[in-house]
Each structure stands twice: as structure tokens, then as C-alpha cells.
Amino acid sequence: MNLPLSVWLITIAVFLVVIGADLLIADRRPHVLSTKEALGWILFYVSLAIIFGLSLGQISGWEYGEQFFAGYVTELSLSVDNLFVFLVLLTSFAVPKEYQHRILMLGILIALVLRGVLIALGAAVINAFSWSFYLFGAFLLFTAVQVIRHRNDHPEPSNNPLFKLVQRVISTTENYDKGKFFTRIDGKRFATPMLVVILAIGTTDLLFALDSIPAIYGLTEEPFIVMTANAFALLGLRQLFFVISGLVDRLVYLSFGLAFILGFIGVKLVLHALAETPSLNWDFEIPLQVSLLVIALTLATTTVASLLRTRQLNAKAVE
Q1: What residue ranges do the domains of the chain occupy?
Q2: Which of 53, 259, 270, 300 has the largest count of CB atoms under 10 Å?
């Protein structure tokens, strides 16, 4: 895809307009987001992603359209794991429910910027070093094992390096002052938990991007598709939080499903690297359609199995 700079700028501008409109709504009337309202926003963002993918396929070729949908589904599924971290952060900082909507939006905006940097670095590495697919593949396989090993670990917000840096550099208070980022106490300026938790959400998401960016590069080598798939996945993630935050604890097999997806794409990357090495005469690769089917089936199986298992456990607890 040889896209002119104007296409990139227009796409980024559209995303900024959508984010700005969402933030304007959140700031104009801070409130607890209802399930109905959250579902409406999710439908809006998913519809935008579908329209974008279909338009991309129509204009640039269906190969790129399929790559976008595979990347979007993958990024969205890997981002679901972020919801548990968001829940821990919002609970740990005792964020009032009426401000959670705004905090998540701003935190995700920071995450989008940081992911953009990672996407650019990933593209540069791939273009400069053909063997980087081996590295990405090995990293995803390692990450898949780590996901299984640490599936029961709970993140500690206090361990976030940025959180520690903010507390060291800026005077902070544990008290909220409505929706303000800074407040004054006895004439001295303090950062409220609003600022700290936004930074914590944005930078913590970056840790998750360390596996999701290589994963999507296993499905497409187009930076434009990587960027847009990540953006659409993150935009709908905030509303998804309010819909399924109560279900996160019920997805007991989620870690196994995500580990399998990461491992599968890791294998796909290694096979692709073998095919890109002329001296090996390797010509087998996993087709994109197969990848999309495997990812979708894994998510469906993981979700259904998790809900059935928790229902079984709850039934036993009642007896």
C-alpha cells in the first residue's frame, strides 16, 4: 500500500475528531455510563470499523480488507485483557464512577500515541531486518508461555514506573477535586489522583502493546492497517469496560485463549520468516483466512467455556 501522506493525515484527523466529540460529551455532563449507553457507543465504533474495513477492501483490494479485519479482531481480543487492569486501577484509586468515562478516554488517548510510536518502530525494524520476524515470533511464543504462567497474578498499580515518577516529581494528594487534574491546598499546588490514574492507564496499556503490536504484524506488514486496527480496537475498549467489567472475573479461561492466539501468531510469524529465507526453499505459510477463523473460534470457545465453568461453580456454591 503506497498511501500518500494526505491519507494518513486525514485518517488521523478523523480519529481526533471522533475522540474530541466523545470527550466533549463526557466533560459536558459527567455521569455514570449506563449499559444501554455503552452498548450504543460500542455499536457505533464497531460499525465504523466495519465500514472502514469494507471501504479499504473496496478501494485498495480485499486482501488489505481481510488484513484489517484480522488485525482488528486480534487487537480487540488482546485488549480485553486490559479491562482487568483498568478495573484494578480504577478501584485502587477509588475513582468516582461519574469520572471513569473521562479518565478511560484520556488514558486510551495516551495509549494511542504511545502505540503509534511502537508501530513506527516495528515498521522500521521489519524494513531494516528481514530476520526480525524470527524475533517477533519467538517473542510471542515466549509471551504466550508467560501469560499461562502468570495468569493468576494481579497487577499492582504502585509498581507502575510512571506512577512512582509522578509521585517523586509532583506533589500529589489522595483527595479528588471534582474532575480537576490539579488542586490547591493551603496555597500549594497538588496533582489529584485524576492525573495519576490517567497516566497509569495510558502507560500500563503500553506494556500490553508489547505483544499486541508484534501479533498484528504477524497478520499484516502494512503500518497503516496496524495503526487503524489498533485505533479502532482501543476506541471501543472504553465502552466495553462498562459493559463487561462485571464479567471479567467470569472469563476464567481468557488467559488460555489469549495465550493460544499469541502462540498461534508466533508460529505464523516463524513460518513466514522461513518462507522469506531463500536458502531454505520453504513455501508453506498459514493463510490469512485460516488465521482469522482460528482467532474467532478461539475467542468464542474461550468465552463459552468460561461462562459455563463459572455457572457450574456458582451452582455448586449454592448447594
Answers
A1: 5-139+155-246
A2: 53
